[in-house]
Structure formats: C-alpha cells, structure tokens
Amino acid sequence: MKAAPFAYVRPGRLDDVLGELAGGDGKVLAGGQSLVPVLAMRLGRPGTLVDITAVPELASATSDRDGYRVGAALRQRAVEHDRAARAVPLIGMAMPFVGHRELRSRGTVCGSLAHADPAAELPAIACCLEATVELAGPAGRRRMPAEEFVTGAMSTAAGPEDVVVSVTFPLARPGEGFGFAELARRHGDFALAGVVTRVRVGGDGGVTDARLTGFGISDRAVTRDVTSLLIEHEGDLRPATAALADAVVDTGGDTHGSTGYRRRLFGVLAARELSRALHRARDRKEGS
C-alpha cells in the first residue's frame, strides 16, 4: 500500500513546529522508522507531516549534573557513540539490541518513547531509571516521569498538538549497578521478554534500592520496586522472580511463545540481571 496524500513542512524553530501542529491534524516526523510503515499501511492519515530535524535545540545531547539530556531529533546511532552517554550505562547495554544498525542510523531515542511499543528497549530504560520527558504544547512546556508519559500500547500522555522536546536520563552514581537482557528469535526482532534492572547499595554493600522493569510482557513497560525481594532472597532469586513473573506477565501467547513461556523467561532473566546489577553496584562502591 501507499500512504494517503499529506503535506510536508520542515520548520526551523520549535514555535513554528507547534504552529504547524495546531489544530491536531499534523504528525511529528523525526526518524520515521515507526511512522512511515504506519503511513504506508494507512493506519494513520495525518494531513501534514511536521519534520522537526531542522530545529537546532532538538538535534543535540547535553550532559550535566541534572543528567544526560537527549533532544527529540537526535539519532539513536549518535547517542550510541556519544562518549557522554557512557555516564548512563544502560544506554550502552541496550542500544545494540534496538533494531538494526541501519534503523538506529535514522531512528531517534525520543521517537521510540513517543511510539511506546510495549516490546521496545528505550521506553523500558527510561522507566527503570526514572527518566524525565519534556513536552511542548499549546499550554507551554511541561515535564513528567517516563512512567507517566507511557500510558499503554502505542499510547502516551502527549496530545495531538504536543511535541516531545527531550528525555533526560539520570547519571549513574557510585554504588549503582545495572543489568539488561532480552531474548528475541533473531537479533533485531522484538523481544519475547526483556528486563532492565537498577540496584543501589550503601557503604556496607547492603541493598538500599532496587528497581526492575520488564518489557515485551504487557501493554507497556512494567516497573516494580524489588528492594525487599532482593534483600530477602539474594541467595536464591529464582523462586521470588518466578512469583513476580506470575504477577506482571499478562501478554497473550502467540506463535513465538505462550504466556507461560514468557513468564518462565522473564523469571530467569530477572533473577540473573538483578544478581548482576547487585555485583556491579558493589564493585562500583568499592572502586569509588
């Protein structure tokens, strides 16, 4: 199929982008790796595509004490090779699993968040790290946690006249460790199940905070505070993560794997990556 007819504009200022989106008949175009197939299948029929790649403030990344801020038009490949992104270890862990290199050369980090695919890696990272999404719209700019931004499968808190401006990931601190794993039938395919973990330890090496986010297991990334789980079951995490899987994995089965298979997979990955994150946190604490 071919896309329905549409107009195309490429403003150079954010205010002009918002002006083009006024009325709700426009659609933001950044990388287009998700949008173009939707248009080709005529699942979406916007009157105007508003290309944001010419807006300078949206095409860069900055790093300071507030975190690593990624503009909405910055390519995933640029972030993957940005030295400043090393301060957010989960980006380096996950980025090679985001589609294929060719897709990352066009796709954007914020575009993945805005698309909100339940099996996508970047929204899961943002939720686990408590990243902040910045939006601009008719009422001005606003910021919200990534967990609140993603509201369901392919659904976000952004309105039809809003544009995602940036996402800011907190920098890793001493005493923090991270884990990432997913399983797909082929590299670059959507994950059958995946987990992202962040663990913090205190001066004595004891766990003070632990978060786990699962993706590919529900209609959105699912985040849980697993501090008590890790403290109580550090010696043998599998039974505890298996019980957690029963509670959070609710995606239906398909030709790639049943719900039961995904629960078993999630339980194994969760136990492994929580353990790895804990060991890395203790190593970073000792090295700080």
TrEMBL record:
Q: What is its EC number?
A: 1.2.7.4
SMART domains linked to this entry: CO_deh_flav_C
Q: Which class of enzymes does this protein belong to?
A: oxidoreductase
**Which UniProt keywords are given for this protein, alphabetically ordered?**
FAD, Flavoprotein, Oxidoreductase
Q: Name one Pfam family in it.
A: FAD_binding_5
Molecular function, one GO term? anaerobic carbon-monoxide dehydrogenase activity
Q: Does the keyword Membrane apply?
A: no
Which SUPFAM superfamilies did the record assign? CO dehydrogenase flavoprotein C-terminal domain-like (SSF55447), FAD-binding/transporter-associated domain-like (SSF56176)
Does Cell inner membrane appear among the keywords?
no
FAD-binding PCMH-type domain ranges (all copies): 1-174
Database matches in PANTHER family: XANTHINE DEHYDROGENASE SUBUNIT C-RELATED
- Provide the protein name: Carbon-monoxide dehydrogenase medium subunit
Q: Which organism is it from?
A: Pseudonocardia parietis
